[in-house]
Amino acid sequence: MSEKSQLKGQTLGFEIKVCNGKARVGKLHTSHGVFDTPIFMPVGTNANVKLMRADDLKSIGVGILLGNSYHLAVKPGLDVIKIHGGLHSFMNWNGGILTDSGGFQVFSLRDLRQINDDGVLIRSPVDGSKLFLTPELSIEIQRVLGSDIVMVLDHCPGPMDSYEEALKSLRRTHQWADRCLKYGVNEGQMLFAIAQGGMYEDLRRLSAQELAKMPFDGFAVGGLSLGEEFEKTLHLTGVTVESLPIEKPRYFMGGGSPELIVHLVEIGVDMFDSVFPTRLARHGTALTFKGRLNIKSARFKDDLDPIEEGCDCIACKNYTRSYIHHLFDRGEALGGILLTNHNLRFMMRFMERLRRSIYDGTFVDLKKEVINSYVKGEGDKLCYDSVDNTVFG
Ligand SMILES: [Zn+2]
């Protein structure tokens, strides 16, 4: 049976299977599979997750990847994606794909853009080309990409923006969300809105309440994890989530450290993405349940243990810490490849444990364990989410 006919008639949407407090386990039904939530989605900005082949991602349990529609529209350009029949075929990935709308680049390329109510003119940092991105064009790009989850174009304010500025960008975000809905996505695609509101509690609530009235398939919390205090991220996400419909998936954009995820799952967030595990891996840091290990440290030079005892990734099954330390010491790409495999497998195992604990009713115990053994554990310390929310994955 062809892939297409298998997918025919498949229902898209979200179902909640079990709750433990506000934390919930659900199933997200997309055109490219059904995925258990809470879920972590690795970032594949340039139609690849750096150093990982599609079959490696599949084998470690990755279900959905994130793609960046603005970057792909610049390079290789939509014509190239079109002749492949979409992003899934282009990158040989038959799992789920969520595409960002370009909204985050509106924020991150502040010096390279001009914005008004119609849209945003962005000058590419890659080749200097200019693109006037409107809500409609953003959806059209994502229709060509053929992603499973399409994000609306939003105006993400800066963390230091005034109340007036945050309100203005919120109004624009809501108007653009409405225009995206009216333009519409392809059959088989889902459309998610993005709640904004800057660092202001009442604007966060207002944004969620207004967007909740519109018929989106899911809702994202945008504009956080941008360097604000950890407690503020949690509080403002909580305020947002409380005003969103309980039956729809909630996606926290651009945050993915284990300590952030465990706190946000507790208040009912279902989806996460971040460059965090892959970027740390390329810089020689391994994630483990006991904390982070800087494999470049001299103490690993003759360490015959695997990166993490009990991990079933290709790095831990086949290689010692000593060997991977050596690869980093010599600047060999294989070091980054092995650690990326390990870190992404760690994230999959971490999410599996979270889901199981919600099923078992032991989420609170697991949260305590994560904070004690992971955050306060024996591993090397890095500041919270220090590599999150950067432009390039
Ligand atoms: Zn491993």
Summarize the structure.
The protein has 393 residues and is of the alpha/beta class. The protein is 42% helix and 19% strand. Strand 1 and strand 2 (23-30) form a beta hairpin.
Structural summary, described in words:
The chain is an alpha/beta fold. It folds into two domains: 40-274, TIM Barrel (Alpha-Beta Barrel); 281-375, no CATH class. The protein has helices at residues 3-7, 54-59, 69-84, 87-90, 103-108, 135-145, 163-183, 201-212, 230-242, 258-266, 276-282, 314-318, 321-329, 333-360, 363-375; strands at 13-20, 23-30, 33-37, 39-42, 64-68, 96-100, 113-115, 120-123, 130-133, 149-151, 190-195, 218-221, 250-252, 271-274, 285-288, 291-294. The strands form four sheets. It has an eight-stranded parallel beta sheet. The chain starts with a helix and ends in an 18-residue tail after the last helix. The relative contact order is 0.13. Residues 1-8 and 381-393 have low confidence and may be disordered. It binds zinc ion. Zinc ion binds at residues 307-308, 311, 313, 315-316, 342, 345.
According to CATH, the homologous superfamily of the largest domain is: Queuine tRNA-ribosyltransferase-like
The coarse silhouette is globular
Distance between the termini: 36 Å
**Which structural class do you get from the secondary structure elements?**
alpha/beta
- The percent of residues in helical segments reads 40-55%
CATH class of the largest domain: Alpha Beta
**What small molecules accompany the polymer chains?**
zinc ion
Radius of gyration: 20 Å
Helix count, DSSP H or I runs of 4 or more residues: 15
Averaged pLDDT, please?
A: 91
- In which order are the strands of the major sheet placed? 4-14-13-12-11-10-6-5
- The counted number of beta strands is 16
What is the CATH topology assignment of the largest domain? TIM Barrel
Largest sheet: 8 strands, parallel
